[in-house]
Design brief:
The complex is a heterotrimer.
Chain A (H helix, E strand, L loop, with lengths): L6 H25 L4 H5 L1 H18 L4 E8 L4 E7 L1 H24 L6 H20 L3 H19 L6 H32 L4 H4 L3 H6 L3 H15 L8 H4 L5 H7 L4 H16 L3 H24 L3 H22 L2 H32 L15 H15 L5 H11 L6 H29 L15 H19 L1 H17 L16 H18 L1 H15 L3 H23 L4 H22 L2 H5 L8 H4 L7 H19 L3 H21 L3 H22 L12 H27 L5 H9 L9 H9 L1 H22 L14 H11 L1
Antiparallel strand pairs in A: 1-2
Helix pairs in contact in A: 1-5, 3-4, 3-21, 4-5, 4-12, 4-16, 4-20, 4-21, 5-6, 6-7, 7-10, 10-13, 12-16, 13-15, 14-15, 14-19, 14-23, 15-16, 15-19, 16-17, 16-18, 16-20, 16-21, 17-19, 17-20, 18-20, 18-22, 19-22, 25-31, 28-29, 29-30, 33-34
Chain B lengths: L3 H24 L7 H19 L1 H8 L3 H17 L13 E6 L2 E6 H31 L1
Helix pairs in contact in B: 1-2, 2-3, 2-5, 3-5, 4-5
Chain C lengths: L1 H19 L4 H22 L24 H32 L23
The chains are: A mainly alpha, B mainly alpha, C mainly alpha.
GO molecular function, one term (chain A): antiporter activity
Membrane topology (chain A): Multi-pass membrane protein
Protein name (chain A): Monovalent cation/H+ antiporter subunit A
């Protein structure tokens, strides 16, 4: 499809348009409130249609790539590419995205922050599209983290409730830890393969698997994928994410967020897969997750929780299939992904519609809604049929394909087969539960009188359910356009489709399916018994991953509080003690470490002290000035009155000015003189108005501690300076200034030339600082117009006044 | 502090100091001096004047708020840097202009105006601080 | 003579540190000034000192006729002095205002920002 844009531009647009749409969505919503869902759904819808145009070239075996330089100096590109796998994911994301946006237009109708919600969900979709279309590992990581952040916003959308905040934080923490793993894994892969591009890494499987770092890479990548895709034992964030509004659940748990981990595993399987570690980890974790999630699903009575747990099960199933890695299982993975996305999104939408129109989601209270909500019931029915995997649905083919690769193998494959059959049967039971319990039977009273949902909320389940059926009726098309490109992309070789409508009664596959259905019906009939048993088991266990998470988080908060109180207890002199102790360490440490003392006082000279006792060649008046400085300093310390202290301060400053004057720095001397005069004037202006206790009342321990620290700091700086003075001075810069001052800068006073010409920019900054200090002082001194209120006993009072004075 | 002698002599001292401060600032490029020192001397003069004659008198004599002078100084210093745009050279490249007036030549340069900007900032800020402290004190007494 | 100046720098620093470690705001302020002076002298001495030859080129010459004092540390110190003074004035006024508002010049009693009994952070989401 050619829109007159270059491929680069158009592919970039696909990834970036949702973000733009997210930005304008709140404003769009404000102006066209009633139909904003319909309008905004055009964005993902348009992307879906545009991506459909890619199907033809991809099916014929090509890939499309585009990109632009991001940080060229590090060879980092923002590159995108499309192959069968990413196209399958991108189409599902944008297609379901369109329906979800439409759905949330009706679901959140009248919500004060609906516009914001549209923004979040479009941004999330953009991140997800970017993730599956990225070629660069770093771009993939960036989008990966973006999905974490946007899903945090979506899950915590109803931020008034603590449960929603908790779910959001949990999802963010768990998936971000995974994100860090992914980043580390990506960097390791770059180290080994020398490229950031997934398309290049794919061909380097041998190199990666042979590398000594393979284990580390595997741990990192699996850590990222398992946290994102809620694999056991990190699955617990997913059910809590159900605190999100239902459209979010429908989107996050069908085709997006949680599938990002599956996508990553599928994408990485040609480069990392095939080893024993890979196969074992994925199959075991996937299998456990499948059974755990399916059983967990039966434990629940809340429709959304049931579906969430069954999502965990389906994710485990997908991971298990990727782990098996055979041609049939990868093909099954592709088909099952599509089937699951279609039915799970539909079922979530149904659950939301039921909740929206009846006010409850509890399957123990819902009964007989089929009459009142016929269209919703049809939607639920279509989705559930596909979930059970009856013939003529896409779910059927997914199941066939799964079993196909596992018949007649070793005991390991037989075990996998048993797990799959059991898992599928449990999921079939769940599907029956979700379909039959709320909709059939006699109508039971609900908090709100039930009635049919609006069309925007029905479009999703019906279209998705119909999609599942249509795909089931067209196995050739599914095989040719979905299965083959996606599976080929994962396996790196062209696979053949086995899908066909014909039912072969002699095939063991059919009988396995029949067994699955039979077990499913059994599980459905025993659902209540199983629920009681499972709940008893859970109570017996006493703790869940949730409680562990809470304990860790609260422990972290307590730890942070303790650390803060230890370091930040509000005693200024303690802070300063630490700072100056640090200074002493910084000065003395390197001096000891690098033998500075040997340099200063060579060991050979140690015996002969007379060599070191050379009187410095100072004139008597120079001695006088240094004496003045020393006297001034000591006088400041022991001054009994304010006036003496101020004058002594002036004395040491004046002595300093005279030192500058004697050693060739008249500019400094003048400046120092003026500053001393002004300091004394200002001090006198202020100090006379403070009724302060001018004597130093330090207890002896403090006195000793502070004194020691002061002497150590002073001695350290002195020694360091002496050490510096023994070395040679690099005078290149000074020489440059001296040589060029007159010829280039036309000034004879080199210091002034440096200030106003060579380092003019610095001086500009410095005078700005001076001016800033002046403004701050004036603000502090500004008199309040109103008379001061009398000092009250109100403890908040001084606080208030301080902020006012500082403002 | 407000003795008759001080009050009588203060205007004289202040006038001398102010003139001297400008002199120190302008000669700074070739002799000891410069904007920083000049500004400090000028601010000290204002401080002395404030003590002798009261803050209100000084503010009246200054006509402009000292902080405005400081602001002008920062602007002037920055502006001299921008001028190098017109010679298509980097920010703050100095430009020299020799104006022949009769027998002498007056060298005008962007560093000179930059230094005047520095003078204004130091003079204005520190005068403002001194005056604010003094008026604060006057109000309390 | 360098060594004498180095020892003097040490004295400046030691005095500054000792005064800064006091609890009285005004003494800390004086300590700050002295510490600043000490650091200025440190930079000055580290740039090597020579007697009496200012870094000013005689007006008839393009280059200095003999060895001159190192101009670079002087330029650094000149701005440091002025900025140090601004800082001093700011801290003085801040201390003054704090004294007026809180009726205290002892840092131990200034605990508005970090109160004695900080409550535990809330253990919830």
């Amino acid at each position: 499809m050619d829109l007159g844009l270059s491929l680069d531009t158009s592919l970039l647009l696909v990834a970036l348009v949702p973000f733009l749409a997210a930005f304008v969505a709140p404003f769009v919503h404000r102006f066209i409130r009633p139909v904003s869902g319909w309008i905004l759904a055009l964005v993902p819808g348009g992307i879906f249609l545009y991506l459909l145009g890619f199907v033809e070239p991809i099916v014929s075996g090509g890939t499309i790539s585009a990109g632009l330089d991001w940080i060229p100096s590090y060879d980092i590109r923002l590159s995108f590419f499309v192959d069968g796998l990413s196209l399958l994911f991108a189409l599902t994301i944008s297609g379901i995205g369109a329906l979800v946006v439409l759905y949330s237009g009706a679901y959140l109708k009248g919500h004060p922050h609906q516009g914001r919600f549209f923004g979040f969900i479009l941004a999330f979709m953009g991140a997800m599209l970017g993730l599956v279309l990225s070629d660069s590992l770093l771009a993939l990581f960036t989008f990966w983290e973006l999905t974490s952040i946007t899903s945090f916003l979506l899950i915590g959308f109803d931020h008034g409730r603590q449960a929603a905040r908790r779910g959001a934080i949990q999802a963010l923490v768990i998936t971000n830890i995974g994100g860090m793993f992914l980043l580390a894994g990506g960097i390791l892969i770059h180290q080994i393969a020398g490229s950031w591009d997934l398309s290049a890494v794919r061909g380097m499987g041998e190199v990666l698997r042979g590398s000594g770092l393979y284990g580390a890479v595997l741990v990192c990548i699996l850590g990222g994928a398992f946290t994102k895709s809620a694999q056991f034992p990190l699955h617990f964030w997913l059910p809590n994410a159900m605190e999100a509004p239902t459209p979010v659940s429908a989107f996050l748990h069908s085709a997006t967020m949680v599938q990002a981990g599956v996508y990553l595993l599928a994408r990485m399987s040609p480069s990392l897969g095939g080893t024993e570690a890979w196969t074992l980890t994925l199959t075991i974790i996937g299998g456990v997750t499948l059974l755990w999630g399916a059983l967990g699903s039966l434990r629940q009575t809340d429709l959304k929780q049931i579906l969430a747990q069954s999502t965990i099960a389906s994710l485990g199933l997908l991971v298990l299939l990727i782990g098996l890695g055979t041609e049939a299982s990868i093909a099954a993975m592709a088909v099952y992904f599509l089937a699951h996305a279609l039915y799970k999104a539909g079922l979530f939408m149904v659950a939301g519609a039921v909740d929206h129109e009846t006010g409850t989601r509890d399957i123990t209270t819902l009964r007989g809604l089929a009459d009142k909500m016929p269209v919703t019931f049809i939607g639920a029915g279509l989705a559930a049929l596909s979930m059970i995997g009856l013939p003529l649905t896409i779910g059927y083919f997914a199941k066939e394909e799964m079993y196909l690769g596992l018949i007649g193998g070793q005991w390991e494959t037989a075990l996998a087969l048993i797990v799959l059959v059991l898992g599928n049967a449990l999921l079939a039971g769940v599907a029956l539960l979700v379909l039959i319990r709320p909709f059939l039977g006699d109508l039971a009273p609900t908090p709100k009188p039930p009635h049919e949902a609006p069309i925007a909320m029905l479009a999703g389940p019906i279209l998705l359910g119909a999609g599942g059926i249509v795909a089931g009726l067209l196995p050739d098309w599914v095989g040719h356009d979905v299965l083959v490109p996606a599976a080929s992309a994962v396996l790196g070789e062209t696979v053949k489709s086995h899908l066909s409508l014909a039912i072969d009664l002699t095939s063991p596959l059919l009988w396995l399916s029949a067994l699955t259905w039979a077990l499913g019906i059994l599980f459905y009939r025993q659902a209540d018994t199983m629920r009681t048993l499972l709940r008893r088991f859970e109570q017996g266990l006493g703790w869940t991953a949730d409680t562990v998470f809470d304990a860790v988080m609260f422990g972290l908060i307590r730890f942070a509080g303790a650390v803060t109180r230890f370091f930040h207890h509000g005693q200024l002199e303690f802070y300063l003690t630490v700072v100056f102790a640090g200074l002493a360490l910084a000065v003395f440490g390197p001096m000891f470490a690098f033998g500075g003392f040997d340099w200063l006082v060579p060991a050979a000279d140690l015996g002969d002290w007379s060599k070191r006792l050379v009187l410095p060649g100072l004139q008597p008046y120079e001695w006088g000035i240094i004496l003045l400085a020393v006297l001034g300093l000591v006088a400041v310390l022991i001054a009994g009155t304010r006036l003496v202290a101020i004058l002594s301060l002036g004395a040491q400053g004046t002595a300093l000015a005279m030192i500058f004057l004697l050693f060739g720095a008249p500019d400094l001397a003048f400046t120092q003189f003026m500053v001393e005069i002004l300091s004394v004037v200002i001090l006198a202006l202020v100090m006379t108005r403070l009724r302060l206790d001018e004597r130093d009342h330090r207890p002896f321990e403090d006195w000793a501690r502070d004194g020691t620290l002061a002497i150590v700091c002073g001695a350290g700086v002195s020694l360091l300076l002496m050490l510096v003075l023994t070395g040679t001075l690099d005078t290149r810069l000074s020489d440059f200034f001296t040589q060029t001052s007159v010829p280039i800068a036309h000034g004879h006073n080199i210091v002034n030339v440096i200030l106003v010409d060579y380092r003019g920019f610095d001086t500009l900054g410095e005078i700005s600082v001076v001016m800033g200090a002046g403004i701050a002082i004036l603000a502090l001194l500004r008199r309040r117009k109103a008379p001061l209120p009398p000092r009250s006993a109100d403890p908040t009072e001084p606080n208030h006044r301080v902020t006012e004075a500082e403002a | 502090m407000n003795t008759i002698i001080f009050r009588t002599i203060a205007p004289l001292i202040v006038a001398t100091m102010l003139v001297f401060s400008v002199y120190v600032c302008l000669r700074g490029h070739n002799e000891p001096g410069g904007g920083f020192i000049g500004g400090l001397i000028g601010a000290a003069a204002i401080g002395v004047f404030g003590m002798a004659s009261g803050v209100a008198t000084v503010r009246q004599a200054l006509r402009v708020d000292p902080m405005a002078i400081a602001g002008f100084g920062v602007f002037l210093a920055g502006f001299t840097g921008v001028l190098s745009l017109f010679t298509a050279s980097p920010f703050m490249t100095s430009i020299w202009l020799y104006l022949p007036i009769g027998e002498t030549t007056i060298p005008l340069s962007t560093p000179l105006f930059f230094d005047i900007g520095v003078y204004c900032v130091v003079f204005g800020t520190i005068s403002a601080i001194a005056l604010a402290l003094e008026s604060d004190r006057e109000e309390e007494l | 003579m360098d060594y004498v100046l180095a020892a003097l720098v040490g004295l400046f620093i030691a005095m500054g540190v000792y005064l800064l470690l006091s609890r009285s705001v005004i003494r800390m302020l004086i300590g700050m000034t002295i510490l600043g002076n000490g650091v200025n002298l440190l930079i000055f001495t580290a740039g090597r000192v020579t007697r009496e030859v200012a870094p000013i080129i005689p007006s008839a010459l393009e280059q200095p006729s003999g060895p001159i004092a190192n101009p670079l540390p002087q330029a650094l110190i000149l701005t440091a002095i002025v900025i140090g003074f601004s800082m001093f004035a700011f801290l003085l006024v801040l201390a003054f205002r704090a004294y007026q508002s809180l009726d205290a010049d002892n840092t131990d009693t200034m605990r508005l920002a970090e109160p004695e009994q900080t409550p535990n952070p809330p253990l919830s989401y």
